[in-house]
Write a structure and sequence with these properties.
single chain; 251 residues; alpha/beta; Rossmann fold; 7-stranded mixed beta sheet; 5 helices; binds zinc ion
Length: 251
């Protein structure tokens, strides 16, 4: 989504849709006017239903929908609403899990469905559907990789469910090696164990979108990064966003 955010002119209005605690740190883009919206977390900003957005037409220059469309019951009306609030020349970022992947199946097993009501399996069909509903041109699709950070112990209060014994109750070191093993297996066997889903880009985006998949995703903050931008020491790199040590694999 950074390709969209960093190419917006100062003062641009951005809607962070269904964002939980926020899809990106506002401090990274202090010149943007960001509205966070979530149905269940009024603490983050506006509490509202995405199928009935409380904003006039063309209120925003960009909408960010990061890991949220898979949770929305009324997907059709939500997409129409997104198109309505984006102004002419605006842009849209969408990321969703691929329901056919090991990562998403594991997530739904651990979290008993995890609130994923829309199982997406066909990226071309989804891109077409979003483009039709929002009237924004589909610009690019990128495959996203998982870091399995949803297995982290801090996600479970007061304690991890019994099935998390398989993952050492969410110990970050175990998740780190699990993520690394998935990526290495993918490179050896051509499997998709480390694949999460897709990022879609729509509308007018000044910056060209690099569609190469980034396999190195931080186990702590979830930031993905192209391998060539990482400083690698032996088998390890430090996350460019949060500084956490991660195991490295070439893209
Ligand atoms: Zn990080």
């Amino acid at each position: 989504m950074d390709e969209i955010l960093r190419s917006l002119p100062p003062g641009s209005r951005v809607l962070d849709l269904g964002c939980r605690d926020g899809s990106f740190p506002v401090s990274a883009y202090p010149e943007l006017r960001v509205v966070r919206l979530d149905r269940e977390r009024p603490s983050v900003g506006v509490q509202a239903d995405a199928a009935r957005l409380p904003f006039p037409d063309t209120s925003f220059d960009a909408v960010i929908s990061n890991h949220s469309l898979e949770h929305m019951d009324a997907l059709g009306p939500v997409l129409v609403e997104i198109g309505r609030v984006i102004g002419r020349g605006g842009s849209l970022y969408v990321s969703v899990p691929d329901a056919s992947t090991f990562s998403d199946r594991l997530y739904r097993w651990i979290y008993h469905g995890g609130g994923h009501v829309n199982p997406f399996r066909d990226p071309a069909a989804l891109a077409w559907r979003i483009s039709e509903a929002t009237r924004l041109k589909h610009v690019a699709t990128r495959t996203l990789h998982a870091s399995f950070l949803y297995l982290g112990r801090h996600h479970f209060r007061p304690r991890p469910p019994r099935r998390m014994w398989l993952f050492a109750n969410g110990d970050q070191r175990v998740i780190l090696w699990h993520s690394y093993a998935a990526r290495v297996a993918d490179q050896i066997f051509g499997s998709r164990l480390s694949v999460y889903g897709w990022a879609f880009y729509f509308g007018s985006i000044a910056e060209p979108i690099d569609t190469q998949a980034w396999s190195n995703v931080c186990v702590h903050c979830g930031s993905g990064c192209p391998a060539e931008l990482l400083v690698v020491q032996g088998r390890w790199y430090k996350c460019n966003s949060c500084g956490t040590r991660n195991l490295f694999t070439p893209d």
